[in-house]
Amino acid sequence: MNNYIEKVSVIGAGAMGAQIAMSAALGGCEVTLHDIKEEQLKKAEAELQNILNRKVEKKRMPKEIVEKAFQKLNFSTDLEEAVAEADLVIEAVIENLEIKRKVFSALDKAAPATAILATNSSTIVSSQLADATSRAEKVCNIHFFNPALVMELVEVVKNPQTSEETVSKAMKFAEDIGKTPILLKKEIYGFTVNRILNAVFDEAIYLMEEGIATIEEIDLACTKGLNYPIGPFKLMDLTGIDVNYHIRKIKYEETGEEKDYPQKTLVQKYEEGKLGKKSGEGFYQY
Ligand code: 3HC
To answer: CATH top-level class for 7-184?
Structure first.
């Protein structure tokens, strides 16, 4: 393998996986998107077609670029076939440690010995996955943001065993596909963005629960007072209230501190299935 990442496999065709795969294809990589469900791959392909067709219609992107990217994007339900020639594998399956460890163990067997195995996880650090493989030095987090086609930042996170070569290839890959990578030298819960974001979410929920201001007013405070593109409540609806609930739950399980338990509003929304945009209602109605 040379220093360049040419062939990328993305495991899991949810919203994140699909857009990561397309970002890499637009960046010139040969990409295979894998999911165990054929229907999920079809759904991902249709969603990507929709997003990119709109870009062509709005003259944001030339048709030829989009067509070329789709030629570089392959779909497969066969994991072994999907990673057989990969230089880099990015796992984006459900946030469940046991499942991710099984996936990493399978990837280790199926991918070339030279391939980097990365996780897009924001809550599971790669040192929890590295020992499920025989190549700990080639394992790291490469964390994209939602929606991955739009958001430029990528957090590359080293675990104690990640080699410098792996780090520099991961950073270069992110740059080559037009992203802006930052390197976290040590694993820390929430990395950088989610630590900052969760502090904002916590404060927004506190202000709302204390009756200091309404959801709409707190969102306005951030959009008009801080120039955030959208306010924290709109953003929780976009990323999913269940995601935020689970982040809090995991933190509480780690610290055991009452203050880290999901706030009563989060628990209520979660139990009512009001998970944000994807369920039609969260803090706002859609
Ligand atoms: N997928 C792909 N592209 C999308 C999209 C989506 N779901 N939603 C919007 N876009 C694109 C549109 O196509 C449009 O592209 P164009 O400029 O080429 O026409 C552009 O984004 C702007 O879209 P709109 O004008 O329709 O809407 P907005 O102005 O409201 O922008 C947004 C949408 C870009 C999502 C904007 O609201 C935003 O930046 N929100 C903040 C997102 C954010 O903070 N993400 C980080 C979340 S934290 C995270 O991901 C961590 C994880 O671990 C949980």
So the answer is: alpha beta
Candidates 148, 99, 97, 95; CA nearest to 122 is: 95
Rounded distance, CA 122 to CA 114, Å? Answer: 25
Q: Please check if 72 is assigned to a binding site.
A: no
Give the nearest ligand 1 atom to 61 CA. Answer: 18
Per-domain residue ranges for the chain?
Answer: 7-184, 195-278
**Closest by CA position to 276, among listed 216, 234, 224:** 234
Catalytic residues: 122, 143, 155, 194
Reported as a single tens digit per residue, the pLDDT across 159-218 is 999 999 999 999 999 999 999 999 999 999 889 999 999 999 999 999 999 999 999 999
**pLDDT 10s digits, 233-255:** 999 999 899 989 988 888 899 89
List Cα–Cα distances, 9 to 36, 73, 204, in angstroms: 14, 10, 38
Q: Is 17 annotated as a binding residue?
A: yes
- State the CATH class of domain 195-278: mainly alpha
Quick check: CB of 60 below 6 Å from ligand 1? yes
What is the 193 CA–ligand 1 centroid distance (Å)? 16
